[in-house]
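Run log // design_07
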């Protein structure tokens, strides 16, 4: 069977072909965005080791998250597939880390200090803190207001800014965002500054 040139297809078309059980399209998507899995794997590698998660298991969770992103992505998504896949993989791994934390915490004596240093200077406080605390909107206590504010922020951002904003909320650095979106770090840095100014304007109005 002659393989088609899938470089002629965009991501939405490839996803459609995958939904029709086209293995070639699935392989193309994986090869095209494998670097995203690598970025996220490296991001959580040390924390996974501190929680006794095998690297192979961590990578498997990343693959499952990537598969989930393929299954859930659709034409109406505001974000590009690269951004959507990043968020899906990131959240899949965070769930695995939280589950590992729960198991590990059950074996730790109440007398162990939260400041006790584990592998690579990672403290217990680092391991058990809520990942959501990294969101800059966490200081706002009213969850409904947060939801409305987040919607207003997104409504005031360009499509490119929305993608960067979504990755910022997942605690990615400007360099990592640049790698994920295939852009120059300076471009992302400038975009982040615009986003911060817009957010400040919305919050302070």
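design_07 sequence
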């Amino acid at each position: 069977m002659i393989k088609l040139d899938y470089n002629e297809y965009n991501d939405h078309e490839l996803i459609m072909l995958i939904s029709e059980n086209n293995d070639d399209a699935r392989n193309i998507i994986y090869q095209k965005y494998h670097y995203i899995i690598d970025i996220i794997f490296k991001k959580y590698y040390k924390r996974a080791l501190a929680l006794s998660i095998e690297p192979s298991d961590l990578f498997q969770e990343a693959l499952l998250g990537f598969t989930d992103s393929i299954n859930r992505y659709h034409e109406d998504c505001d974000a590009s597939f690269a951004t959507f896949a990043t968020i899906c993989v990131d959240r899949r791994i965070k769930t695995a880390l939280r589950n590992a934390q729960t198991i590990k915490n059950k074996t730790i004596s109440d007398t162990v200090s939260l400041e006790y240093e584990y592998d690579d200077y990672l403290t217990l406080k680092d391991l058990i803190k809520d990942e959501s605390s990294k969101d800059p909107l966490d200081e706002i206590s009213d969850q409904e207001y947060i939801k409305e504010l987040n919607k207003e922020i997104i409504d005031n951002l360009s499509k490119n800014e929305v993608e960067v904003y979504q990755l910022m909320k997942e605690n990615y650095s400007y360099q990592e965002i640049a790698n994920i979106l295939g852009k120059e770090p300076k471009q992302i840095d400038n975009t982040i500054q615009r986003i911060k100014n817009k957010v400040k304007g919305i919050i302070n109005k």
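The chain has two domains: 1-129, 136-205.
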